[in-house]
Write a structure and sequence with these properties.
Blueprint: H1 3-6, E1 12-18, E2 20-21, E3 33-34, H2 40-57, E4 63-71, H3 79-92, E5 94-105, H4 112-121, E6 125-131, H5 135-140, H6 147-160, E7 164-171, H7 178-190, E8 195-200, H8 208-214, H9 223-239, E9 243-246, E10 249-251, H10 263-269, E11 274-277, E12 282-285, E13 288-292, H11 296-305, E14 317-322, H12 325-336, E15 344-345, H13 346-353, H14 357-360, H15 362-370, E16 374-377, E17 383-386, H16 388-392, H17 394-402
Parallel strand pairs: 1-4, 1-11, 2-3, 4-5, 5-6, 6-7, 7-8
Antiparallel strand pairs: 8-10, 9-10, 12-13, 13-14, 15-17, 16-17
Helix pairs in contact: 2-3, 2-11, 3-4, 4-6, 7-9, 12-17
Bound molecules: iron/sulfur cluster (SF4).
Iron/sulfur cluster binds next to loops.
């Protein structure tokens, strides 16, 4: 079966991974690297080649409604590189009018000129890694910026033309109490962002943070305090007019009353197709999951050596897995339940998979509803979603759906 044709009407999202950072933060386990900036020109050439080959392999200019430069630190890319990548995308994909085109930025790496350049190149949404308003917390996180850099970056962004600005914050830091966290939230609100992403600090094996904790050098707040911080944020942001639409994400509305959800991330949470470009990037289209070479040099070489790609995998793909029906259904629950209001629609599930949601996961749903972690919502109870308590125990809920049954 040619799944390209079968998915011809779907709108696509494109993710571009930029794995370069000035410094590798102690808590980070993303696919990033510091000290390899000299490879940026070759990397950008490889990305453009990957986009070109992937676009050609689709057999048509696929319609694209979101593009996301993530990292790493995409704001380290020269403006001309971003413009060139977007030109390549427009040549090989049909970027729709009004498409959301986001770039993640470290506040310490931008200038008014670079932001004006990104805006002129077509970027229309910025996501700044603010993380905290507290200098000691920023130092602990080894961030290469201070809170004044965040204020400057936001002011310059607005002068450059950007209205759709998102800020990332981290809670659950060592020594951070609810008061300190509340001060960070208030500082972020002063900046009037369109969107906020709030993440609990997670300790990933292999990171310096993991070693510090193992040696007893660092202690994180307990789960109760972290939950208190999460609830504090939920209440404060709701009072400030933000709508929580995902476990970690809140959005304001624009002047016309439209919500400013991150449309790119919605694509993942709704289980819709996306292509991933760059080192370690993942993709999902037509029931096939792909993943690229992680290493920057290996990725560049794979792209340089390739003459063609087999859709939806690009020339640097090392994973190209067709998901079983069961795996697709499990994944749908894992990511869809993150959307705390929308949840997973029973009608959509039936249409996609040909099986009723309430039958496929009868045992799990009964157990989680009885435990007060899931609820049916909407008119005629047409969607399954997390309860308020379930939001705090999301991982426990998701794990129920991936076990054998
Ligand atoms: S700037 Fe972000 S991506 Fe880069 S090392 Fe720090 S946390 Fe990781």
């Amino acid at each position: 079966m040619c799944y390209v044709n079968s998915m011809a009407t779907a709108l696509y999202s494109l993710y571009l991974h930029i794995p370069f950072c000035r410094h590798r933060c102690g808590y980070c386990d993303f696919n990033t690297t510091a000290g390899l900036e000299a490879l940026i020109p070759a990397y950008v050439d490889a990305l453009r080649r990957e986009i070109r080959l992937a676009g050609r392999s689709a057999g048509e200019r696929l319609p694209v409604h979101t593009v996301f430069f993530g990292g790493g630190t995409p704001s380290l890319l020269p403006v001309e590189a971003v413009a060139g990548i977007l030109d390549e995308i427009r040549e090989h994909f049909e970027v729709l009018a009004g498409a959301e085109i986001s770039l993640e930025a470290n506040p310490g790496t931008v200038s008014l000129e670079s932001l004006q350049g990104f805006w002129m190149a077509g970027i229309n949404r910025l996501s700044f890694g603010m993380q905290s308003a507290n200098p000691a917390e920023l130092a602990f996180l080894e961030r290469q910026h201070d809170v004044f850099d965040v204020f400057k970056a936001v002011e310059w962004s607005r002068r450059a033309g950007f209205e759709n600005l998102s800020l990332d914050l981290i809670f659950g830091l060592p020594g951070q109490g609810s008061d300190g966290w509340a001060r960070t939230i208030e500082t972020a609100l002063v900046l009037k962002p369109a969107h906020l992403s709030l993440y609990a600090l997670t300790v990933e094996e292999g990171t310096p943070l993991h070693r510090w904790i193992r040696r007893g050098l660092v202690t994180l707040p307990d789960d109760d305090l972290a939950a208190e911080m999460y609830e504090l944020a939920s209440e404060r942001l709701e009072a400030a007019g933000f709508e929580q639409y995902e476990i970690s994400n809140w959005a304001a509305r624009d002047a016309n009353g439209n919500n400013l959800f991150c449309r790119h991330n919605l694509q993942y949470w709704r289980g819709l197709p996306y292509l991933g470009f760059g080192a370690g990037a993942h993709g999902y289209a037509g029931g096939v999951r792909t993943a690229n070479e992680n290493g920057v040099r290996a990725y560049i070489q794979a792209c340089q050596n390739a003459e063609a790609a087999v859709f939806p995998a690009g020339p640097a793909a090392i994973v190209r897995d067709r998901l079983t029906l069961k795996a697709e259904m499990q994944e749908r629950m894992m990511v869809g339940l993150r959307l705390i209001k929308e949840g997973v629609s029973a009608a959509d599930f039936l249409q996609r998979f040909g099986w009723p949601l309430e039958e496929v996961f009868r045992r799990q749903i009964q157990k989680l509803v009885a435990a007060g972690l899931l609820e049916w919502s909407g008119e005629n109870e047409k969607a399954l979603r997390l309860t308020k308590r379930g939001r705090l125990l999301g991982n426990r809920v998701f794990m129920e759906f991936v076990g054998e049954d």
